[in-house]
Amino acid sequence: MLTGIPAKSRGALAVAGFVMGVLTGGGAALAHEVSPSVADIEIQAGVLQMRLRINPEALIAGINLDVVSDTNEAVQANDYDVLRALPPEALNARIKAHWPQLAHGVAVLIDGADAPLTLDEIVIEDPGSEEVARAATLRLTGDVPPRAKAMQLSWGAGYGTLILRQAGVDAPYTGTLSGGQISPEIALSGGSAIGGWSAFGQYIPVGFEHILPLGLDHILFVLGLFFLSVRLRPLLWQVSAFTLAHTVTLALGAMGWVNVPGTIVEPLIAASIVYVALENVFLGHLTRFRPVVIFGFGLLHGLGFASVLGEFGLPDGQFVPALIGFNVGVELGQLTVIALAFLVVGAWFRDKPWYQARIATPASLVIAAVGAYWFVERVFV
């Protein structure tokens, strides 16, 4: 496909295409990245009460959240932006008007029979900026027949990930659903808490998705480690230091022992991307201090992972298996990024004498520029 083009030019084109593919694949910005929906269900005095937290603009605009993580990537992005600009009162009215269509994707079954839900209240959150996706919490209620034993929740195709949590009983159910799935039967009296292996398995894709495709900042940091050298030994030192560090703070953050505001963590993560990329440019080799520095940056990234995991919550009684599953998913995502980078760039150009000048340096400069932009955006915007 690139025959007739000099090898050096093919290398430059490959790295430019790869880095730009990462950037465009992850969205030009993180501003409209959509969080998973959350449904908290409790039954009191024969009434099912559900608090459903959604991204209303994305669902009303018809964006397929099963395949889109950032609304800027969707063909309905303009429709979303118009809805995002509405004041809370106007959006509240749009949600009420659109609820009959949305309700088709939020179906509750009690002992196999449909249990109609009534929309009682809508609370619109204020994220503080139009450039940030906002959420709405819908309070829904439905009647539960006497002597009912079990329920299921069906989640609509295109609605994205849902965290389903049962409350008010012993051993409550906590799990995740993808668009188009239906939950297992959940005992109304409790006792449906998932087992350790189920929790472990459910949270692996959650961790993986936080890297691919959702974790563009983490992807660029890992690429910064890769472009220092595609050789195994220096790459192994760096990735090992990063993995160890973010595992520590992920666990501490998930347990609530460490809590650093995102307004501090997110700019520092952007700064870490800039530092690693510029060190690639000005040093170009692994120093004995770099793994130590990367360990420090890994602590920051672990706090970022913990904040995402906090949105999902961890099932009661299966905290450790779910946490391990999430971390395994993160590691698999990072290894996938490195494998793709090697297949696209390293396998073809790593032995070329001009690799550093034509591949590693330009890629690192692009990564540094993006990190610097994010740092300014996260501090001043």
From TrEMBL:
Q: Which UniProt keywords apply?
A: Membrane, Transmembrane, Transmembrane helix
Organism equals Litorivita pollutaquae
Q: What is this protein called?
A: HupE / UreJ protein
Q: Does the keyword Ribosomal protein apply?
A: no
InterPro entries linked to this entry: Put_HupE_UreJ (IPR032809)
Question: Which residue windows are transmembrane per the record?
Answer: 210-228, 235-258, 264-283, 292-310, 322-345, 357-376
